[in-house]
């Protein structure tokens, strides 16, 4: 199939870690991305990972990539109320007709409770 | 850098009217994308351009929608005539291309057709 799949909702307590999961379909995908969308705003690029990497860390964010299972995750350490948003994963697929195009998941709403 | 600029931010119009949405991409970016976001359908890619040339317009809903990019710093998305089901948030994004093809989104235009 063509879909990038994400669970729709995640609720955590402030200070806990959040893990948002994503599965993608194309083994030839080269880059995978995480975007954050706050209410009333556009999508903000958080981070991306090249498909030959297993892990990428950037401050409180850790991205893990399991190419065998086509599974991508975003871990947010010490989750804050300001992290409440919708998180989208996306993949860039190879193929002459798809250069430049990203395939987005449906988004995971993260709710952080104080 | 000012980021991707979209105008207007909000548009309310009556069914049957023509609507024009505008986008200024980040300077130097070779790719420009138009997306539509609704609760029901999520984020949909409508069309994208590379070096001002439309590459993939398979997401454009129907002939009522048209998009142009007359130069590297400006694009329009036009709906004529508009219908209530066109109500959505329309995002423009741009990308430098190169290796990672990350996209940078504008703040969106919220369109309401009554």
N- to C-terminal distance of chain B: 36 Å
Strand content of chain A: over 45%
What best-fitting shape of chain A do the alpha-carbon axes yield? Answer: globular
CA-atom Rg of chain B in angstroms: 13 Å
> Portion of residues in helices of chain A?
under 10%
Low-confidence stretches of chain A: none
Largest interface: pair, residues per side: A-B, 21 and 22 residues
Please characterize this protein's 3D structure.
The complex is a heterodimer of chains A (114) and B (114). In chain A, 0% of the residues lie in helices and 54% in strands. Chain A is mostly beta strands and 114 residues long. In chain A, the strands form 2 sheets. In chain A, strands 2, 4, 5, 9, 10 and 11 form a 6-stranded mixed beta sheet that branches. Chain A has a 5-stranded antiparallel beta sheet with strand order 1-3-8-7-6, with no helix packed on it. Chain B has strands at residues 5-7, 10-13, 19-24, 31-38, 42-50, 53-56, 65-71, 74-79, 88-95, 104-105, 109-113. In chain B, the strands form 2 sheets. In chain B, strands 2, 4, 5, 6, 9, 10 and 11 form a 7-stranded mixed beta sheet that branches. Chain B is globular and about 40 Å long. The model of chain B has no long low-confidence stretch (mean pLDDT 94). Classes of the chains: A mainly beta (114), B mainly beta (114). Chain A binds chain B through residues 31, 33, 35, 41-45, 48, 50, 88, 92, 97-102, 104, 106-107, and chain B through 4, 31, 42-43, 45, 48, 50, 55-56, 91, 93, 95, 97, 100-108.
